[in-house]
């Protein structure tokens, strides 16, 4: 069939396979092909008009005034029967062989009633329920390629085309020529534009651990509302599906458009969404004590970096829309938990959402400076935690510690004369080389390293200069476990009159040195306290290094770091003896302690 016998630019689009045609043979070609002339109603193919294409009849239309599929042109007000409601749309029957759709964004012009909390409520409030016959206006059929509603033509198949409709009062009242055909899309969305939409669902961002709320803004447009732009309430951010119900109405502003990925980003219009705790409005609200939701950005050994979001400056002069702004924050190891550990951030991961409280607002500094300090300590977030459950209280200055207090921290730096130990974000204590160990330390750097987690005891405090002296010597710190798991004590934790089991570590003419099993210090038993005999006593004849003994505490001198012991049998009740035959063994020799009477 030659193209010249047709009166359209695209000749075959007016015909379909299987269609019956009336034609007249005009010539038989030598290649056994027959050329035919298609008859138009007027008898002349050139006189046939484009609009005279055979119309397709509809079956059992809901609106009795409709006869053909081509009658459903944009602007037509007709009737439809609601077949079902699924998600964000109502599925309609315009006829037995013609289907339609009513999107949730085409129900109302103004914000729905406050009682409407989901899509089912919205449809019910507008009278759209399964089985109901409703009055609708045809928008056309949706072409996703050009973001327009197109009229019904011969190219649209009744069985494959879904006709878009609206029941918005403004659209029903408008004149047909006043109705637009353009769809709201990422191409037409402008920053600052206020839009009404409905929650479509919640989507987790890949590899970030936080979420975006999908907002249906139009038939073919879905806005992305980051959950941290919507609230500063951790319970909402951590469980958004419990608070953002599909179909719930929201009013938002366009904050940006990602043209590459065709994504429209939105933020709450007016700064908040009804029923949801409002996000932080500005950086001026970042005050100590303010609760925030943060997203982990990076993790190091002793610092965790996180981001929080606040409303930024206006998008443009005179524009009421605001762009969400990220504020870089830090979480120190000292603000990670109420019980400090060597690996404070081992249980955290990048992208994880945190409930935190601001401990330092950065004095309104640049949001990217990272000067805002956060705390995730349970005691900072709750007021019902007893002090006994806080193993390591926050330390900000020398006024927060006292002499004899056991503290934990991280080695900040090492010098030839000792170490500097961080006890808090803003306090560094000094431990002299003589206070680093009970053993002789020749090279400090071979024993200690920057970042090492250590336990020490405060030896001096100068509040005026904010200086703290520290000792890391186990004999002073105490509280660590011995070889058998027994907790060892400091000298000040030993009481006069106690009976201690220990090991002989050194023997001199003037007495015997004994190291108690449950203490770091070494005590001295003078020769006159070894036996009840009044005659001369040779300690070396009575004891050997490694002997197990039972000793009585006679004197404790914490200031001089001395412990006086007695081994006389008269110090013990019947059946006890200063010489113990049980638990034979030897401890390493340690002569740091001595005693005087």
Automatic annotation (TrEMBL):
<dbReference type="InterPro" id="IPR003029">
    <property type="entry name" value="S1_domain"/>
</dbReference>
<dbReference type="GO" id="GO:0003723">
    <property type="term" value="F:RNA binding"/>
</dbReference>
<feature type="region of interest" description="Disordered">
    <location>
        <begin position="575"/>
        <end position="597"/>
    </location>
</feature>
<feature type="domain" description="S1 motif">
    <location>
        <begin position="404"/>
        <end position="473"/>
    </location>
</feature>
<feature type="domain" description="S1 motif">
    <location>
        <begin position="75"/>
        <end position="155"/>
    </location>
</feature>
<dbReference type="GO" id="GO:0006364">
    <property type="term" value="P:rRNA processing"/>
</dbReference>
<keyword id="KW-0539">Nucleus</keyword>
<dbReference type="Pfam" id="PF23459">
    <property type="entry name" value="S1_RRP5"/>
</dbReference>
<keyword id="KW-0698">rRNA processing</keyword>
<protein>
    <submittedName>
        <fullName>rRNA biogenesis protein rrp5</fullName>
    </submittedName>
</protein>
<dbReference type="Pfam" id="PF00575">
    <property type="entry name" value="S1"/>
</dbReference>
<feature type="domain" description="S1 motif">
    <location>
        <begin position="192"/>
        <end position="268"/>
    </location>
</feature>
<dbReference type="InterPro" id="IPR057302">
    <property type="entry name" value="Rrp5_S1"/>
</dbReference>
<keyword id="KW-0677">Repeat</keyword>
<dbReference type="InterPro" id="IPR012340">
    <property type="entry name" value="NA-bd_OB-fold"/>
</dbReference>
<dbReference type="InterPro" id="IPR045209">
    <property type="entry name" value="Rrp5"/>
</dbReference>
<dbReference type="GO" id="GO:0032040">
    <property type="term" value="C:small-subunit processome"/>
</dbReference>
<feature type="domain" description="S1 motif">
    <location>
        <begin position="497"/>
        <end position="568"/>
    </location>
</feature>
């Amino acid at each position: 069939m030659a193209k010249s016998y047709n009166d359209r630019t695209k000749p075959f689009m007016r015909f379909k396979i299987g269609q019956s045609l009336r034609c007249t043979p005009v010539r038989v070609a030598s290649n056994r092909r027959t050329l035919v002339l298609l008859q138009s109603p007027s008898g002349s193919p050139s006189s046939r008009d484009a609009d005279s294409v055979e119309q397709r009849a509809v079956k059992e239309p809901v609106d009795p005034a409709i006869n053909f599929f081509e009658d459903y042109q944009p602007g037509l007000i007709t009737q439809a029967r609601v077949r079902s409601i699924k998600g964000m749309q109502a599925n309609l029957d315009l006829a037995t062989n013609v289907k339609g759709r009513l999107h949730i964004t085409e129900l109302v012009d103004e914000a729905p009633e406050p009682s409407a909390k989901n899509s089912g409520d919205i449809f019910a409030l507008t009278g759209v329920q399964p089985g109901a016959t409703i009055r609708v206006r045809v928008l056309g059929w949706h072409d996703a390629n050009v973001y327009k509603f197109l009229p019904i033509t011969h190219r649209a198949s009744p069985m494959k085309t879904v006709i878009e409709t609206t029941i918005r009062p403004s659209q029903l009242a408008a004149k047909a020529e006043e109705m637009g055909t353009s769809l709201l899309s990422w191409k037409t969305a402008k920053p600052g534009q206020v839009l009404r939409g409905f929650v479509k669902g919640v989507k987790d961002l890949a590899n970030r651990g936080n979420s975006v709320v999908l907002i249906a803004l139009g038939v073919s447009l879905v806005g992305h509302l980051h959950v941290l732009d919507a609230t500063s309430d951790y319970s909402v951010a951590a469980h958004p599906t419990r608070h953002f119900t599909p179909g719930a109405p929201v009013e938002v502003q366009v904050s940006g458009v990602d043209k590459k990925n065709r994504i429209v980003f939105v933020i709450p219009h007016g700064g908040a969404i009804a029923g949801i705790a409002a996000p932080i409005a500005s950086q001026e609200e970042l005050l100590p004590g303010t609760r925030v939701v943060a997203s982990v950005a990076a993790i190091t050994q002793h610092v965790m970096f996180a981001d929080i979001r606040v409303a930024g400056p206006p998008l443009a002069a005179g524009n009421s829309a605001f762009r969400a702004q990220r504020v870089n924050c830090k979480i120190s190891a000292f603000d990670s938990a109420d019980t400090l550990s060597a690996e404070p951030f081992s249980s955290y991961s990048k992208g994880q959402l945190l409930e935190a409280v601001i401990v330092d607002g950065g004095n309104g500094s640049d949001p990217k400076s990272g000067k805002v300090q956060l705390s995730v300590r349970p005691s900072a977030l709750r007021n019902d935690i007893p002090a006994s459950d806080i193993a390591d209280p926050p330390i900000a200055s020398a006024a927060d510690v006292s002499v004899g207090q056991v503290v934990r921290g991280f080695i900040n730096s090492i010098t030839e004369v000792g170490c500097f130990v961080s006890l808090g974000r803003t306090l560094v204590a000094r431990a002299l080389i003589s206070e680093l160990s009970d053993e002789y330390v020749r090279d400090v750097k071979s024993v200690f390293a920057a970042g090492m987690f250590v336990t020490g005891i405060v030896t001096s405090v100068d509040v005026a200069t904010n200086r703290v002296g520290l000792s890391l010597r186990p004999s002073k710190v105490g509280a660590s476990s011995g070889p058998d798991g027994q907790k060892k004590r400091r000298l000040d934790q030993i009481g006069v009159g106690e009976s201690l089991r220990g090991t002989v570590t050194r023997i001199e003419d003037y007495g015997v040195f004994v190291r108690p099993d449950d203490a770091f210090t070494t005590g001295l038993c003078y020769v006159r306290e070894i036996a009840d005999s009044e005659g001369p006593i040779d300690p070396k004849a009575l004891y050997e290094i490694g002997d197990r003994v039972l000793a009585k505490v006679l004197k404790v001198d914490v200031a001089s770091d001395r412990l006086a012991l007695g081994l006389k049998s008269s110090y013990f009740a019947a059946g006890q003896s200063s010489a113990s035959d049980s638990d034979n063994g030897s401890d390493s020799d340690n002569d740091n302690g001595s005693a005087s009477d």
